Structure formats: structure tokens, C-alpha cells
Amino acid sequence: MSAVADKYKELQDLGCEVFSVSVDSHFVHKMWNDHELTKMVDGGVPFHMLSDQAGNIGRAYGVWDEAQGIELRGRFIIDPDGVIQAMETLTPPAMGGDVDLAEAKRRIGDRVCLVGGWDQFHFFQGCTPEQTRAEVRRCFEAAGAGGGFILSPSDHFFDADPELIMAFADEARRCTYY
Fold it and tell me: pTM here?
């Protein structure tokens, strides 16, 4: 959110509006903005933080997790006609969600580019390089056909094993799906 906040003026100059949405109440949003986000962004985030405690927005955009009662992390670029032009919502299980890459690819086809889908908590630590390579291949087999897929961790990976990062990068270079 801080990266978007830093670019907010430029986005507004392009005619864009930015909102963040979560299941947290507006009271939680205010506390988070005042006590955490202000450490990253001078004055806090300049855009509206919306509360979706019932999950209606999350359901509409396919990021609501019924079992946990939460919205998965996601970013959407929606044009003035309400059409999603780009989205990023791939969140591995350890981050609070689960994604079936093949199902995501089937549902959105070639309309947008999928970014993410990598579970760094299970394949950047505590496994073998071959297990990491196999997971890279699985991701590309599920979502790489026809292009439109960027394999990427969804968050930081400070505790990652460098050997596994090398296996990830090397295997990703070998995967070609067009």
C-alpha cells in the first residue's frame, strides 16, 4: 500500500482513483493508518480504506474466502466501464488463501496477466532444490499455457534458502509456454 500511496498523485493525474478494501472495520483502518502506515508514508495513505466486513466486495471480485471469512490479497485495475483490465490476487495458503492456478487461468483466460502463485513458505525453505523445481514446473503447467503468467512470490522471502532461490530462477528460465 505504501508503494501505491507514493504514486497516488501520479495515478490521480492519469484519471485513476485508488481504494483499499479489507474485512477490517473503519476503526481498525484508522488505527493501522495512524500507527503503522504513517511510518511508511508521510501522513498515511492518501486514499480511502473501505471496510467490507460482510465480504460483498470480495465475493464480487473473487477474493472472498468463505472458510476463513477474509479477503485474499488482491489488486485490480478497473476501467471506467467497470471492466477489470488487470488483477493480482494469487495468494499461497500460508498467506491466508489458496489458489488453483489452472482454475484461475480457466476463469480469466487471456483477459489479464496472472502474477504470483508462488508459495515461498514451502518452496524457498525446508525442501530440496528438486522439490522447488517441481513446483515451478507445476505452476507453469497450470497457468503458463498461452502466456499471461508471471511466476512471483507474493511477499518477502527474507528466510529463503539461497540455493532454493537459484533453483527457482533456473527452472523458471527453462519453462516456456506460449
Answer: 0.50
